[in-house]
Every structure is written in structure tokens, then in C-alpha cells.
Amino acid sequence: MRLALTAALCISIIGVTGQQKFLSQKAEPPNIVFILTDDQDVHLSSLDYMPLVRKHLLDKGTYYDKHYCTTAVCCPARATLLTGKAAHNTNITDVNPPYGGYPKFVKQGFNSAYLPVWLQEAGYNVYYTGKLFNAHNINNYNSPYPAGFTSHDFLLDPFTYNYMNSSFQRNQDPPQSHEGEYVTDVLAQKAYGLLDEAVGAKKPFFLMIAPSAPHADIQNNSGLLTFDAPVPASRHANLFKDVKVPRSTNFNPKQPSGANWIRSLERQNATNVDWNDHFYRQRLRALQAVDEMVDGLFTRLESRDLLLNTYVIYSSDNGFHIGNHRMQPGKSTGCEEDINIPLIIRGPSVAHNHTTQLVTSHTDIAATIFSLLNIPLREDFDGTPIPVTKTAIEAEEKKRREHVQVEYWGFAGGEGIYDRRLHQNNTFKGIRVVADEYNLYYQVWCTNEHELYDMSNDPGQMANLLEEGVKMDTVFGYPIEKVVQRLDALLMVQKSCEGETCREPWRSLHPDGSVQSLRDAVAGKYDDFYGSQAKVQWGYCHNGYVPEAEGPMFQDEGLVFRGAGFMWPDWV
Length: 572
Ligand SMILES: *[C@@H]1O[C@H](CO)[C@@H](O)[C@H](O)[C@H]1NC(C)=O
Ligand SMILES: *[C@@H]1O[C@H](CO)[C@@H](O)[C@H](O)[C@H]1NC(C)=O
Ligand SMILES: *[C@@H]1O[C@H](CO)[C@@H](O)[C@H](O)[C@H]1NC(C)=O
Ligand SMILES: *[C@@H]1O[C@H](CO)[C@@H](O)[C@H](O)[C@H]1NC(C)=O
Ligand SMILES: *[C@@H]1O[C@H](CO)[C@@H](O)[C@H](O)[C@H]1NC(C)=O
Ligand SMILES: *[C@@H]1O[C@H](CO)[C@@H](O)[C@H](O)[C@H]1NC(C)=O
Description:
The protein is α/β, with parallel strands linked by helices. It has 17 helices and 20 strands. The radius of gyration is 23 Å and the shape is globular.
């Protein structure tokens, strides 16, 4: 009922997030090359060690400083990228069945309804090499084959993270082992080959390249999965000898921080820290072959005269932490290191060497690709196109959604060699809000522990403002309690939103459009309204998306703000 009502009320604003218009659009449809690394961070400064990414992408493109993944683990993040839907709408919430992995992707019906298929329907040739999903393996690669590709050459499990013994599977061919060859170099050759195939076909194309670097190396030793540091190409093995994980304020801190299992972690000893520094250097070294591949791609785009009509997008599935909050190398949490990730776009009319603070997420990427290619947006997209020209970016700076919803189900595990425990109860909902006046992260764990961080004063998230005994009682001049009421109500809408309600969540609460931001919502006239909302509250912790575990799913029927001058539109 609620949803139907909300959907009806939102009809009037369809079009607000419509197509981007390009002044200098050439007659020829543009191409897209999308490079997606695995587990690449922003906050451990990995991009500082990629001079060729700097040269071709950062210096010649636009960097989205506030880009987020919404579920910080490979398969759910990739499913969101390729469908334009939040994980609670794909219900691909894990890397393996029953809650995730390639079999779950197929079971959910997405093999006939995702980006490659839609792009082919729009007349594009679609190419892919590298990792598609977890649990896409040497046994199930053909049951069924992933749909939507003109040509593909997938990296398959269980060898996806085996840097020196990978297995690739091209089109309808059987998997082929690349024992003894360096995986990113194999991948680069395949990417160059697909690019030439695309050029030869003389049709607009979408080429996606998904290296496994800088993910941890995983070997299957007779059934035992062994994690180790990433493996660089031998030519890069001795680089960065003195480099260490950045010692930010939350690096292996003296006092524990966070909540739930994170708060109970012991401080790491020197042996552990030293090894984690080694793990970090191996990540940077493993990224060098990716950096070279980026150079190889740009060389070819240029020599084939494609550079002026091709968008190149660079991102990662999720972020990464090493030692932050005493955690072992890994992802899967709501901390900024795990969710704030690289996004760089270069292409026709995209500003050079530009950085924007617009809030964007992986949920927006499919809509962005549609928009760049002038394909009408799908109604069921949970995200909105990311503007790419400077003019379009500036136009959205004052009106774009200022938040990202974050969600996770399952456990968190370290990927180094120390403390290999799987931390259960790592299921949570969060909301990251960024504006000029405030910069906040709010999270509700399935244990019903709450966290709120003021990210401007505390970027390391060391002081939970909702913890007993915390002195501070206001944020941006408003009582914390009132701000939390608003954030909680927004999170309540977001955690089960679909399509339009995800794109315009404040409209579910204020159908008259009077509230578009947290700033608007904190006004005193809404105190009673927000004070009476149902709270985000978990029934219990579960490793998958089972609504029964997740407490109230929507704000109460009828709890929509209809105060001060609200009029139902004529067509209701
Ligand atoms: C990019 O911009 C920064 C300052 O914003 C400047 O220092 C740098 O030289 C610029 N780089 C290029 C290649 O233009
Ligand atoms: C590489 O993988 C193949 C299976 O594809 C396996 O038979 C072989 O033993 C592996 N080699 C090494 C060095 O692990
Ligand atoms: C690991 O190898 C064993 C056989 O040694 C196999 O039964 C198992 O399926 C493999 N695990 C994965 C995740 O592929
Ligand atoms: C350091 O910590 C690791 C991980 O807990 C442990 O295995 C190791 O024994 C410790 N080393 C020393 C010297 O205490
Ligand atoms: C998970 O959280 C529940 C409370 O929701 C608690 O009873 C249980 O002990 C926790 N389990 C672990 C492994 O921490
Ligand atoms: C998500 O998938 C799991 C596993 O198949 C299933 O148990 C659950 O009911 C699904 N959730 C929703 C909301 O459909």
C-alpha cells in the first residue's frame, strides 16, 4: 500500500533526473571503456602510486571524491553496478550461494536483465574480460553462459585470485589455464585483443575490463583456501621498499573504536603491523601492472583514433582497510576506507584535472552509462545519472541527493595471514551524508548498536557520538537526538526503497517536496513528525536479506508529512 502511494505521488517528478545533454555530442555514438579493479582503496592512497592513471585519467578527466559503493564486497557491488539496483533490490548480498555469487545472479533472473543485455538491445557491441562475479567458475561457466556479450573472456573461480595460475574462459570455449603467467598481463593482452575486435566490428562498443588486482592472493590447497598478500609481476617485485600503510588517526589505535566486533579487537603487535605493511606494498606493486594496462589501453585508443569519442570510467568494486580500527586487511564494513572508492571519468566534454564533491554511488553507474549513451533511463533504476561535464556538475551541486545508503549482510573476515576469524553479526544499514554544513555517517547494526560520526571533525571515525559518556550534544548546531531522528527516518525509507523512492527518498516523507535534504528536515516545525516515526530496529542478525530479521520496513502508514500548506496534487 505505502509503496503504491509513494510511487503515484512521485510521477510528477519523473524527468528531474533525466538525460544529460551534451553540447558537443558528435553524430557518432560514443564508446565506453570501463575499468573495474578489485578492492582498490582511496584512503590508503593507492592512486598516488599509479602515475599512468594520473596521466591519462586524473589529469585528463574528472575525479569523484565522494563516490561510494553501497555494499562493500565484490559480488553484491558488481551486481549493483551491472543492474543499477541497490543490493536489497538485487538480493545478491554475498559472494557465494545461497545469498550471492553467479548462481544467485542467474536465479534472480538478472542474466536477461542487466547492463550488457540492455546495451546490446540499444545497438552496442559489448565486450568483457576479467572477473564478472564470484562463484562463476570452471564448472558452471556454461550453465548458462552470461548473456549480453559480443565477445567475452572471463576470469574464473577457483583461480580468480591466483595471480600466477589463472583460468580464463573465452566465448563458448572451455576454460584455459594460464599456469605460470602473470594474471594482469594475460588480462591486458585479452583487453587489447577485445578492443581491436571492437574496432574491427565498426559499431559503437562497451568494453569492460575487470582485473583481480589488488585483491589478496587466494590459493586452493586441497580444499583449504589460503589467503596471502597480492602477488606483483616480477618486474615490480622490488618497488616501494620503504612504503608503509598510511598512519592515519584510526590506524591500529591505542584505544578501541567503533562498535560490535570491531570494538572488541585487540591492538595489533609489531609483527602483525610489519606483515600488514608488506601486504600493503604488495597491493601497490600488484597495481603497477594495472597502471601499465591503462597506459596500453590509452595508447591503443589514441592510435585507433577513438580517444575523442570514448568515455573511460575507472573504479573499484569496493574499498579496503589495513589496520584501521585495528582491523586486519579486508573490507565489508561501513567505515569510510571500505565504502569511499575511486571513480574517475574521462571523455568527450569531461573537464580535465577536475575534482568534484558531488555525492555519487555505484547504484548510479548503470544510469550514468545509459545517460552517456543517450538510452532512456529505466524506471526501476535505484540510482540517477552522474553528471560528467563541468556545467552539468555545477548545475547539480545545489540539488543532487546528498547521501548514499550503505547496507551489508553477513560476516567480515580478514584477508591477511593473522586473525583469520570470521566476525559474525556484520549485518547493518548505514547512511552517509555529505553537504557543506555537515558530513556524517550513521549506522544501525543488526545488534541494534548505533553509531554516528562527524566526518569533518573526526574523519577517522574514532568518536561515536551516540556512545555513553560522549560530551558533545550537537552537530551543525542541532541537538544530536534531532539529527538522528531525521537520519533514522531517511534510513528507514532507503533500506527498503525501490526505484523512485530510492532516487527521491525525502519525497516519501514529504510528498510536497518541501524537504530535499537533512538541512531542510531539521527545521523545528518537523520535530513532532520525526519524533513519532518508527525507528530502524533489527529483529535479529541474519547473513542474508530476510525481511523478517529487519524490523519495521517502512515508516507507518499515514506518517507522511502533510503540515503547513500541503495540497494533494489534482491528479491524486
Ligand atoms: C591539476 O590541478 C592542480 C591544482 O588543482 C595543479 O597543481 C596541477 O598542475 C594540474 N595538473 C595538470 C596536469 O594540469
Ligand atoms: C594450476 O592450475 C591447474 C588447474 O587449472 C592445476 O592442475 C595446477 O596444478 C596448478 N599449478 C600450480 C603451480 O599450482
Ligand atoms: C578446492 O579444491 C578442492 C579439491 O582439492 C575442491 O573440491 C573444491 O571445490 C575447491 N574449492 C573451491 C572454492 O573451488
Ligand atoms: C603477534 O600477533 C599475532 C596475531 O595475533 C600472533 O600470531 C603472534 O604470535 C604475535 N607475536 C608476538 C611476538 O607476540
Ligand atoms: C550476535 O548478536 C546477537 C545479538 O543480536 C548476540 O546474541 C550474539 O551473541 C552475537 N553473536 C556473535 C558471534 O557475536
Ligand atoms: C533473498 O534471497 C534469500 C535466499 O534465496 C531468500 O531466503 C530471501 O527470502 C530473499 N529475500 C527477499 C526479500 O526476497
